Amino acid sequence: MSALSRISALGLRLPDVAAPVAAYVPATRVGNQVWTSGQLPFVDGALPATGKVGAEVSAEDAYEYARTCLLNALAAVDAGVGLDAVTRVVKVVGYVASAPDFTGQPGVINGASELIGEIFGDAGAHVRSAVGVAVLPLDAPVELELIVEVA
């Protein structure tokens, strides 16, 4: 089953590629890899929430926002090379805007990592960083970068 078919079977859809909020492109191909820019959890062009995880945003909601960030990253890959060209997910870098005492960044970014597994199976096994930061663009709670290998 193709990645797009799996996404549909999960009751999800790829959104339109999120418009950059500054001077960059959503994704670029380098050799047999595609690197995405940081993707925020935009839904229909707007952030569903703002603020710090562990304060204004719950870890559970942030987990869902990480899934949304992933779908936005996959949309950028799809627009560039077609999602079915992906042969392996290489790396995920997740940033979590965190309240000073919040230490659950890995659990938040699991939202993206677990969805990758559901979509790509064994080809979705990836390395990852989950980083707590003071603030993200537009006061987003989560941001995600993705590197994939393509055929």
Distance between the termini: 17 Å
Low-confidence stretches: none
SSE class: alpha+beta
For this structure, the CATH topology is 60s Ribosomal Protein L30, Chain: A
Radius of gyration: 14 Å
Number of helices: 3
Largest sheet: 5 strands, mixed
How much helicity do the residues have? 25-40%
Rounded mean pLDDT score: 97
* Fraction of residues in β-strands: 15-25%
CATH architectural category: 2-Layer Sandwich
Q: What is the CATH C level class, in words?
A: Alpha Beta
SSE order in H/E notation?
A: HEEHEHEE
Shape: globular
Neighbour order of strands in the largest sheet: 1-2-5-3-4
What is the CATH superfamily label? Answer: RutC-like
Descriptive notes:
The protein contains three helices and five strands. By secondary structure, the protein is of the alpha+beta class. It has a single domain, classed as RutC-like (60s Ribosomal Protein L30, Chain: A, 2-Layer Sandwich). The relative contact order is 0.25.
Highlighted features:
151 residues; 60s Ribosomal Protein L30, Chain: A; 3 helices; 5 strands; 24% strand; Endoribonuclease L-PSP; RutC-like_sf; Endoribo_LPSP/chorism_mut-like
Topology:
Blueprint: H1 3-9, E1 27-30, E2 33-36, H2 59-81, E3 86-97, H3 105-120, E4 127-133, E5 142-150
Parallel strand pairs: 3-4
Antiparallel strand pairs: 1-2, 2-5, 3-5
Helix pairs in contact: 2-3
